[in-house]
Design a protein that fits this description.
The structure holds two protein chains of two kinds. Helix content of chain A is 84%, strand content 0%. Chain A has ten helices and no strands. Chain A has helices at residues 2-41, 51-60, 62-96, 98-113, 116-126, 129-153, 158-166, 171-212, 218-227, 231-260. In chain A, helix 5 (116-126) crosses helix 8. Chain A is flat. Chain B is α/β, with parallel strands linked by helices. Chain B folds into two domains: 1-90 and 170-264, Rossmann fold, CATH 3.40.50.300; 96-165, no CATH class. Helices cover 37% and strands 22% of the residues of chain B. Chain B is built from nine helices and nine strands. In chain B, strand 8 and strand 9 (228-233) form a beta hairpin. The radius of gyration of chain B is 19 Å and the shape is globular. Classes of the chains: A mainly alpha, B alpha/beta. Chains A and B meet through helix 7 and helix 8 of A and helix 3 of B.
């Protein structure tokens, strides 16, 4: 038995390692090729900076860039929290009353399908800049939370609902002990999408705001560096944005896994 | 509503009855007549089986008794404890599926009816553990439902139905999805529980053998709309056990019940 398990475990472990190692090798090879091309061809940094130059810029400009990173992350976080609370609250409201759902749902869709880049300049006129940026992040991110939570609340097992009815559960009890736990995997899925989207919303609004003047987020740095032909700093800021997106996704995926690991199919190992 | 039923049952001197249905019909919104008119009287402490083809309204009868749905006409009476405040406490329901909450432990699943009735936590925990012990799952209180086998999940479902100490236990084809060996074992355990706890059991099944083995009375129903085709009393030496399952009396009863059931399947022979 154990020998068999070893035999199957080894290729599985190897496969897992390869899934980590292969992208890293590709990444490293790409960087080396990039560096070599830039050096051999003598391409100037304002056309295409070598990776080493980008890293040096990142270190040299860390004071400015870290400040901008903090600003963008704060905006993203605010937009994400607003989208999570707003999306879940609205879904709960829709679930309690069909009339509210029929009245408001079309507008949620309108807000979702209108490109945020087109709404941002308007918002910047009516709202203070920081508020406008957060509102943009919210608009982009709240819809997946809303639609996923609604789906989850409507996916309650019918027999379980009957059981709650049989034991005379009140509406708040049914919500707390049945509907919310049943909807949790869906809600977490929605939050995972919303995390990345709030970063996108924040960046879009920052770029719109940046062309209007003041601003200090990473997207603003990219726009500003573009005007000054400071290409290495553009790349450095882009690198930070990309890393921020990866970290946000990773954190939310981890939270989701930790919350669901004892019961939900999505978080269970294949051997179970 | 429920207190009114209690008083009328007492007034008419039907206190020995746990459940009575008179002239009950049920027509669904889509116009399908599922049941009736249907008359049934179940004495307190009796174990009866409702047996019939699929879609004959067996489950509807249980749902009507549990007040999960209302009859289109007729009267459904359920005897209740004196001073019973919340509806449903006198009734335990075991569904066809285990119907457990996957996100919480076995103990929490069993504690649910008490939690919904706002029973203090310590007391509810103790009662949930006792109910789990009565179905032989004391060691699995902290497991999650997905870690259990099909038969064990059904036991948890049974423990949950018993945790409120109901007078009446309604069971809707609870063992239909289990393998035969597990089903036989659960049949024996259910009979043992019934003997010690003395509850009224209304057991829905489509298995002739199961109904004869378990019940004191087998009520055979017709195809839709469900009516009573036959009401057969199973008399044997109690307590029943594996010996009864292989006895000549058992096969006689099975033959008799099958014969009573045959007309319900007429016209369906081509299926």
């Amino acid at each position: 038995m154990s020998a068999q398990a070893d035999v199957t475990a080894k290729p599985q472990g190897a496969q897992r390692a390869m899934r980590l190692v292969l992208p890293v090798i590709v990444f490293a090879a790409g960087l080396i090729a990039w560096e070599l091309v830039v050096r051999i061809k003598g391409i100037p940094p304002y056309v295409l900076p070598a990776p080493s130059v980008i890293v040096l810029t990142l270190i040299k400009d860390w004071a400015v860039l870290s400040q901008s990173l903090a600003t963008t992350l704060l905006t993203t976080l605010e937009g994400f929290v607003a989208a999570s609370i707003g999306g879940i609250a609205l879904a709960l409201l829709f679930n309690q009353s069909k009339w509210v759902e029929y009245s408001l749902f079309p507008y949620a869709i309108v807000l979702q399908v209108t490109p945020v880049i087109a709404i941002a300049p308007l918002l910047l006129i009516y709202l203070e800049q920081q508020t406008a940026v957060v509102v943009c992040a919210f608009i982009v991110a709240f819809f997946p939370v809303l639609s996923n939570t609604t789906l989850g609340l409507n996916s309650v097992d019918r027999n379980l609902a009957g059981l709650f009815q049989l034991y005379g559960a009140s509406r708040p009890q049914t919500l707390r002990f049945l509907k919310l736990p049943a909807a949790l995997p869906y809600i977490l899925g929605g939050l995972r999408i919303a995390g990345g989207l709030s970063l996108i919303g924040a960046v879009v609004a920052e770029i719109a705001a940046g062309t209007a003047g003041a601003g200090s987020g990473l997207a603003y740095r990219i726009a500003e560096s573009g005007y000054r032909l400071n290409i290495p700093r553009m790349f450095a800021a882009l690198l930070l944005l990309s890393l921020a997106g990866i970290v946000i996704y990773g954190v939310l995926a981890l939270v989701s896994h930790l919350v669901l690991r004892r019961w939900h199919e999505s978080a269970l190992g294949k051997e179970n | 509503m429920s207190s009114g039923k209690t008083s009328s049952a007492v007034e008419t001197g039907l206190t020995h009855l746990a459940v009575s249905l008179r002239g009950v019909t049920k027509t669904y919104d889509n116009g399908v007549m599922a049941l009736g008119p249907f008359d049934l009287a179940v004495r307190k402490g009796e174990f009866i089986s409702l047996l019939g083809p699929s879609g004959c309204g067996k489950s509807t009868v249980l749902r009507l008794i549990a007040e999960l749905s209302a009859p289109s006409s007729g009267i459904v009476r359920v005897a209740r404890h004196e001073g019973e405040v919340q509806p449903g406490h006198g009734i335990g329901f075991v569904f066809q599926e285990p119907t457990l909450m996957p996100w919480t432990s076995v103990r929490e699943n069993v504690r649910l009816p008490l939690k919904l009735a706002s029973v203090p936590k310590a007391e509810a925990r103790a009662r949930a553990d006792a109910a789990l012990a009565s179905v032989g799952l004391a060691d699995f209180a902290d497991s999650f439902p997905r870690e259990l086998s099909g038969g064990m999940k059904m036991r948890v479902s049974l423990a949950r139905a018993l945790v409120t100490d109901p007078d009446i236990l309604l069971m809707d084809e609870p063992f239909a999805a289990l393998d035969e060996i597990t089903r036989f074992r659960l049949n024996n355990d259910l009979l043992a529980l019934w003997r010690t706890l003395g509850k009224t059991v209304i057991f829905v099944t489509h298995s002739v053998f199961e109904s004869v083995y378990l019940s004191q009375r087998v009520v055979v129903m017709t195809a839709r709309p469900g009516r009573i085709q036959a009401d057969i009393r199973i008399e044997t030496v109690e307590p029943r056990g594996e010996a009864f399952r292989t006895s000549a009396a058992y096969s006689d009863y099975c033959r008799k019940v099958s014969a009573a059931l045959a007309p319900s399947y007429q016209g369906q022979s081509t299926l």
